[in-house]
Design goal:
Elements (H helix, E strand, L loop, with lengths): L9 E7 L2 H12 L4 E7 L2 H10 L4 E5 L15 E5 L5 H9 L2 E5 L5 H12 L4 E2 L1 H11 L4 H6 L6 H11 L4 H8 L3 H15 L4 H10 L6
Parallel strand pairs: 1-2, 1-3, 3-4, 4-5, 5-6
Helix pairs in contact: 3-5, 7-9, 7-10, 8-9, 9-10
Length: 215
């Protein structure tokens, strides 16, 4: 596989509270010529500090504590999550927060490697049980039911939605709000999901109908 960062290796950060599991993930990274271990951490807090001072293309996290992953994105890196969290609602929220691959903690080395490549390539990869859990909940559910159970738009998302109505692009929104373009993408993805929209234009139209955008 050809990597994008100037021909160098894919830079990978590893996070796991268990030293044994962390060593296992480090071993996976070090065993592939395309990969470079950019950092290894026992807690997400340490990773956040690292992410502010160093660049990583992919971050592999083993954790069942998904709350921290549902806050502001950790970095611009694609996230591969190894977890036992399997309920459809949590998985849906993780995907909207920027997680690009979700596997079981018991996934083998080949699955982890495949997830890293997929996340780095901009794809989404889910283990079979996780994909089935989402399909079981959402597969036959009418759109009207999904709309009724949608979450409320936050104040920050309302700001972003109104800027979309002004015709601003991601870079301009990021500059105006003082946040990264990755965070802007995160907010837009959440807005589309909550409004049940498939495009920005549709989101603006629905926002006007719901009174979120003054006219």
């Amino acid at each position: 596989m050809t990597v994008r960062n100037g021909g160098g290796a894919i830079r990978i950060g590893v996070v796991a509270t268990s030293a044994v599991r962390r060593a296992g993930l480090e071993s996976i990274v070090r065993s592939h010529a395309d990969f470079h271990l950019a950092g290894s951490f026992g807690a997400l807090a340490s990773l956040v500090s690292f992410a502010r001072s160093a660049e990583a293309d992919v971050i592999v996290i083993e954790s069942d504590a998904i709350h921290d992953l549902l806050l502001e994105p950790i970095s611009d890196a694609a996230i591969v999550l190894l977890t036992e969290v399997g309920d459809a609602r949590s998985i849906s929220r993780l995907l909207r927060s920027g997680v690009r691959a979700i596997l079981s903690k018991e996934s083998d080395r080949d699955d982890v490697v495949a997830a890293i490549y997929a996340a780095y390539g901009g794809l989404v990869l889910l283990s079979t049980p996780i994909a089935e859990s989402i399909a079981a909940v959402y597969g036959d559910q009418p759109l009207e039911v999904e709309d009724e159970s949608s979450e409320e738009i936050t104040s920050r998302e309302t700001e972003v939605l109104r800027m979309l109505a002004e015709g601003l692009v991601n870079k301009e929104i990021a500059a105006r709000l003082g946040i990264s373009e990755h965070t802007v993408k995160f907010h837009i993805s959440s807005i589309l999901h909550k409004l049940g929209a498939s495009t920005r234009t549709e989101a603006v139209t629905l926002g006007i109908r719901r009174g979120l955008i003054p006219i």
